[in-house]
Amino acid sequence: MATRTDALTLEVVDLVATVVARYHEEYEDAAAQHSLTGAQARVLALLAHEPLPMRRIAMRLKCEPSNVTGIVDRLESRGLVERRPDPDDRRVKLAAATAEGRRTAGHLKSSLNFAREPLAGLSVAERTVLRGLLQRILGIDPT
Amino acid sequence: MATRTDALTLEVVDLVATVVARYHEEYEDAAAQHSLTGAQARVLALLAHEPLPMRRIAMRLKCEPSNVTGIVDRLESRGLVERRPDPDDRRVKLAAATAEGRRTAGHLKSSLNFAREPLAGLSVAERTVLRGLLQRILGIDPT
DNA sequence: TATTGTTATACTCTATAACTATA
DNA sequence: TATAGTTATAGAGTATAACAATA
């Protein structure tokens, strides 16, 4: 075990903080290019993958369900998302991305170039090492 | 150069996104433990390091200067921050952390345990490799 | 009774534009 | 005239509490 918080660890934490800041910047910029807020972009990305009950969206966003109402309202008024009844439970409303919503989500994902540019400088071996270290940090069992 | 967006790169991007999400969660939680919002905590951390003109705070936060007024107002009303005149330019107001503000910032930093817990599982050698890779990604010249 | 989604309310963060006091 | 900070305003995200419909 290392000392309580050695210089190396602090350096790494600082680098992680910088990565976090830059990632956020790029995400917000990419969202803004499609006239979306960050929260709207996150919900749209979620729904482009699969329709979800309002409450599940709130859990994924780690916010209160009442907030999701407004976010989905704004996405719906732009035709990117629609609300559908759940056949199994009439209390539930399923939010689902429309065709245009899925298209926008696709553009958004590809304009998020954090993926390519910075990682392009790393070799396959280096990216593999990085993947392993990040998995360890996150407590993910490498399958 | 790797292919446009190979599976490995996508995996790493996904891991980075998870790190970003977890870091944010922990930061907001740590701030909330001191009844601070994320923005307030960021400004307080900045000012605990050194006093700054309002405009410089806005540049560091990448937001409009008008927003900083409100954030500093709230910190000031809690006695964590104070506004001082700048002797060199009477237009400028320097925001500075009070003694209590610096204390709060210290607690906040130590309650941000993203630093210790996840990185503790990595050896010194692994942390060194991670530091190098993150520096490469961020385009930082290792001194 | 419990749960799902919504509404109502209040607070914070955000950008824009107009204002003031300095420079 | 240009700049620093503020104010005013409006939109969006957030939590809390209360509500209707359904389970």
From TrEMBL, chains A, B:
Q: Do you know which SMART domains this protein is assigned to?
A: HTH_MARR
State whether keyword Transcription regulation applies.
yes
Q: Which InterPro entries match?
A: HTH_MarR-typ, MarR/SlyA-like, Tscrpt_reg_MarR-type_CS, WH-like_DNA-bd_sf, WH_DNA-bd_sf
Q: Where is the HTH marR-type domain?
A: 9-139
Parts of the chain that traverse the membrane: none
Keywords from the named record: DNA-binding, Transcription, Transcription regulation
PANTHER family in the record: MARR FAMILY REGULATORY PROTEIN, TRANSCRIPTIONAL REGULATOR, MARR FAMILY
Q: What is this protein called?
A: MarR family transcriptional regulator
Q: Print the organism lineage.
A: Bacteria, Bacillati, Actinomycetota, Actinomycetes, Kitasatosporales
